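Long-time lurker, first post. I've been practising inverse folding by hand and with some scripts of my own, and I keep getting stuck on stretches where the C-alpha cells seem ambiguous. Below is the full C-alpha cell string for one chain I'm working on. Before anyone asks, I'm not after the true native sequence, just a reasonable design that respects the backbone. If someone could post their per-position residues I'd love to compare against what I wrote down in my notebook.
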C-alpha cells in the first residue's frame, strides 16, 4: 500500500505512536527510504507480518493527512523501513522528504493490511513476484522474510520500471540475489529503455507473462517432467491497477488458482480485477441506511447496476475507501439488514463473511432495503 493519500474523513482510524527516524536515504530521483526505531515498550504493538503497511500522519498544505506505505523491512529485522515515492512537485511526500530528518519523530500507525502469506518453513515451495515501480516495497519484505524463514522455498522476482536508474532498492535486491543465488532469481524489465534481450523490454502484462513462462520458467531442474511454472505455489503482485489486472488474469488463465494470486495496489483503482461472471436481477429504488463516524445517513439508490460504495461516493457521502477493487479493506462494514451479492474480494476471510461483514465496493444490492454499519469494524 503505497502513496495512497487520504484525508482523514475517508480514512479509518488506527492507533498511532510517535517513532524516531533513524535513517533517511534517497534511492532514486523520486524515491527515498525512511527507517523508524521501535522502542522496547512499543515492540509488541509493532509486530507485523511481511507484506503489511503503516500509516504516517502529518500536515500538508494546512490539512491533516494519513499516507499509507508498505514496509520493506522483514519481521526479524525489528525496525520499520518504508520506501516512499514523490509523485510530483506538489505531492505531500515531497514535503515529507524535505521537512523531516534523522532524529525527528513522526506519528506512525500500528501495522495493518492483509497482503500476507502463511509461512510454511518445512515445505518445498516456488513463489513468484511481480512488481511495478514503488510496488517493489512489500515484495522486498516478503522475499527477505521467506529467505530467512523458509530454507526450502525458491523465489523469482520480475520487477518493471521505466528505466534502469529508476530501480528503487536495487543495491538491496542485488545483495540478496548474491547471498541467496541458488534460491532467489531477479529479472529487471524496462518500458522506456533499450535492452540487449527484447524479453526484458516492455511492460509487465499478459503478453510478457507468456514469454516469461516460455523462456524463464520453463525447464525445472528439480523435476524433468514439469516446468517451473507448473510448480508455482503462490503469486505476489504489487503495482498499478492495470498491471495487477493484466497479470492476475494471465496467471489465472494459465492455471494458477485465484486463492493463490495475491495483490496489493499503490494507487486508487476503480475497476474489478477479475471479470464479473454473474448477472443480477434488477432492483430499483433501494433504501440505504448506514452509520459511520457515529452519524447515521440515509439515501435512495436508483437501482443496483452499480456497486454500493461507488453509488454512495457519487452522492457525496463520507464513506471510507482507497481502492474500490476489493483489495484494501477500507470500506469494510457490517450488513445489518437486507441482501447483497459480495463479488470476489482479496480481503475478507470466509469467517468474516459469515459474521456479516461485507466490502461495500464489491457489493451489489439484491433487496430494496439495505442497512450498513461502518463503525462496528
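-- Answer (accepted) --
I ran through it position by position. Result:
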Amino acid at each position: 500500500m503505497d502513496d495512497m493519500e487520504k484525508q482523514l474523513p475517508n480514512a479509518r482510524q488506527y492507533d498511532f505512536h510517535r517513532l524516531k527516524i533513524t535513517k533517511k536515504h534517497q534511492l532514486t530521483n523520486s524515491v527515498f527510504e525512511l527507517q523508524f526505531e521501535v522502542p522496547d515498550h512499543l515492540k509488541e504493538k509493532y509486530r507485523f507480518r511481511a507484506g503489511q503497511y503503516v500509516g504516517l500522519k502529518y500536515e500538508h498544505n494546512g490539512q491533516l493527512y494519513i499516507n499509507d506505505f508498505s514496509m520493506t523491512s522483514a519481521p526479524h529485522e525489528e525496525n520499520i523501513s518504508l520506501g516512499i515515492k514523490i509523485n510530483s512537485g506538489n505531492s505531500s511526500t515531497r514535503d515529507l522528504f524535505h521537512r523531516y530528518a534523522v532524529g525527528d519523530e513522526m506519528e506512525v500507525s500500528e501495522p495493518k493490511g492483509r497482503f500476507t502469506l502463511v509461512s510454511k518453513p518445512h515445505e518445498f515451495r516456488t513463489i513468484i513476484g511481480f512488481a511495478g515501480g514503488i510496488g517493489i516495497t512489500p515484495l522486498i519484505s516478503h522475499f527477505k522474510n521467506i529467505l530467512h524463514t523458509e530454507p526450502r522455498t525458491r523465489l523469482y522476482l520480475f520487477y518493471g520500471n521505466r528505466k534502469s536508474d529508476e530501480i528503487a532498492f536495487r543495491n538491496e535486491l542485488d545483495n540478496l540475489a548474491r547471498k541467496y543465488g541458488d534460491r532467489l532469481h531477479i529479472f529487471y524489465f524496462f518500458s522506456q529503455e533499450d535492452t540487449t534481450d527484447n524479453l526484458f523490454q516492455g511492460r509487465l502484462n499478459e503478453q510478457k507473462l507468456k514469454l516469461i513462462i516460455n523462456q524463464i520458467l520453463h525447464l525445472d531442474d528439480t523435476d524433468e517432467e514439469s516446468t517451473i511454472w507448473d510448480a508455482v505455489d503462490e503469486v505476489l503482485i504489487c503495482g498499478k491497477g492495470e498491471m495487477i489486472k493484466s497479470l492476475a488474469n494471465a496467471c489465472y488463465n494459465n492455471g494458477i488458482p485465484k486463492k493463490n494470486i495475491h495483490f496489493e495496489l499503490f494507487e486508487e483503482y476503480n475497476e474489478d480485477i477479475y471479470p464479473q461472471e454473474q448477472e443480477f436481477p434488477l432492483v430499483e429504488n433501494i433504501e440505504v441506511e448506514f452509520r459511520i463516524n457515529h452519524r447515521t445517513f440515509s439515501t435512495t439508490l436508483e437501482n443496483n447496476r452499480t456497486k454500493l460504495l461507488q453509488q454512495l461516493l457519487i452522492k457525496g457521502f463520507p464513506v471510507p475507501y482507497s481502492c474500490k477493487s476489493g483489495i484494501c479493506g477500507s470500506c469494510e462494514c457490517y450488513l445489518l439488514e437486507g441482501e447483497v451479492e459480495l463479488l470476489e474480494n482479496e480481503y475478507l476471510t470466509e469467517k468474516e463473511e459469515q459474521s456479516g461483514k461485507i466490502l461495500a465496493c464489491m457489493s451489489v444490492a439484491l433487496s430494496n432495503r439495505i442497512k450498513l454499519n461502518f463503525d462496528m469494524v
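A couple of notes from the structure itself: Residues 126-265 form a domain with the Rossmann fold fold (CATH 3.40.50.80). The first helix runs from residue 92 to 99. Happy to go over any region you disagree with.
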